[in-house]
Amino acid sequence: GDGCGHTLLTLHSGTLSSKNYPGTYPNHTACRWHLRAPPGTSLLLAFGDVDLEPSERCAHSSLLLADPEAGTAYAGPYCRNASPATPLLVTNSSTVTVLFNSTSHRSGRGLLLSYATSQHPGRGEHPPGIQTPPPQAVVYCPAGCKDIDGDIWGNPTQGYRDTSVLCKAAVHAGAIADELGGQVTLSREKGITLYESAFANGLQSKRGSLSEKRLIFHKGSWAPSLLSLLPACSDVLDVATFNASSWWHEVDALGQDRAWVAERAALGTAGHSWAAEPGSEAAWLELDLGTRRKITGIITKGSSEQHDYYVTSYRVSFSRDGKNWRPYRGSGGQEDKIFEGNIDSHGEVSNAFIPFIVARYVR
C-alpha cells in the first residue's frame, strides 16, 4: 500500500512525489508525509504538479493537507477536477501532514510538491520543476531537486539552456547541495550555439542545440579547467606536492618501465597518470597546497583513452597540518560523503564542496 515516491525532507525545505511520478501512480496506495518546520516559522507549499484522476469529491484519488495537531484539513481534497486554486499555499502553521490516497484508476501523473519555511523570503514561488525564470532573479530551491523528472542541457562552465529544469541545473552547477537546497542567484544571458553535456555532482546533463537564452548561476558557481582543486573563484589551485599511499611500477609487454607516480596526478598531464600499486587496499592520493586555502570543488579524470583506467567513486579527507585528518561529510551529514566519480577514462567530472573546505592538505 506504499504510495510514496521520491522524498527528501529537511527542517527548512523538501520535495516529495507520488510513486512512479511522472508516470501513472499505482492503484490502492496510501502515503503520509509529516512536515515540521522550526518553532515560530510557518510552512509554504508549492504545487509542482497535481494530476489525479477526476472523481466526485475526489473519492478515487486525492491529495489532502491537514493540521496534525488540530486534526483539521488545511486544503483539499484535490484531484484533476478539484485542483489547487494557486500554485502556492501559505500556511499559518509549522506542521502539516500531506496525505495521498488512490483506489482503482486509469490515468494521472500523480503529484509533485515542494515546501520551505517562512525564514526564506521568496521561497515556494518556484516549484522544483520551474523552467522560465525572470531575466535576473534570486530563487530559493528546495531540497530534493536532483531526482525530480526533467532534463538539463549544458554545464557549470558555459551555463545552461533556458529550457533546463532550473533547480536541478543549480545542483548540477554546484550552486546548492541537493540534500539542503538553498538560495541561488541567476541571470539569463544570450544563448549559445551548442550546449555540451557533463557529469557533475551526481547528475548527467544533455548535449543541446541553440536556445534564445541561457541560465548562469552566480552563487557558489565555479568552472572546471587526472585532478584539480577549485577555490572560491574559477581559478584552479596550484599543488605544491603530490603524495600517495603507493604507486604502480609497471613493466609492459616490451620490458619497458613505466612509473605511475603521484606527481602524474595533475589534471592535464600527458600520457599515463597516477595509479596505486595493483592489489593495494584503501589507496589514497594526497595534495599539499603549500598553505591553507579555501576549496570549493574537485575535478577528476581518467588516465587517458589509451590506458582506460579511472576511479568510479571516492571519499575526501582534509587536514591543516598533515597529521590530523577530518573526513568530508557534506552538509551536516553523519557519514563520510561518497562522491560519484568517472564513468570513462576521458571525461572530466566535477563535484562541489558544499560547505567549502579550508585546508592545506587534501586526500
Automatic annotation (TrEMBL):
Residues 221-363 form the F5/8 type C domain. Keywords: Disulfide bond, Membrane, Phosphoprotein, Transmembrane, Transmembrane helix. Its main location: membrane. Disulfide bonds join 4-31. CDD domains: CUB, FA58C. One of its GO terms (molecular function) is signaling receptor activity. Residues 4-118 form the CUB domain. It is a single-pass type I membrane protein. Residues 137-215 form the LCCL domain. Coiled coil: none annotated. It comes from the Eukaryota. The keyword Glycosyltransferase does not apply. One of its GO terms (cellular component) is plasma membrane. Pfam families: CUB, F5_F8_type_C, LCCL. It is found in: Membrane. The keyword Transmembrane helix applies. PANTHER family: DISCOIDIN, CUB AND LCCL DOMAIN CONTAINING 1, F5/8 TYPE C DOMAIN-CONTAINING PROTEIN. This is DCBD1 protein. It comes from Piaya cayana (Common squirrel cuckoo).
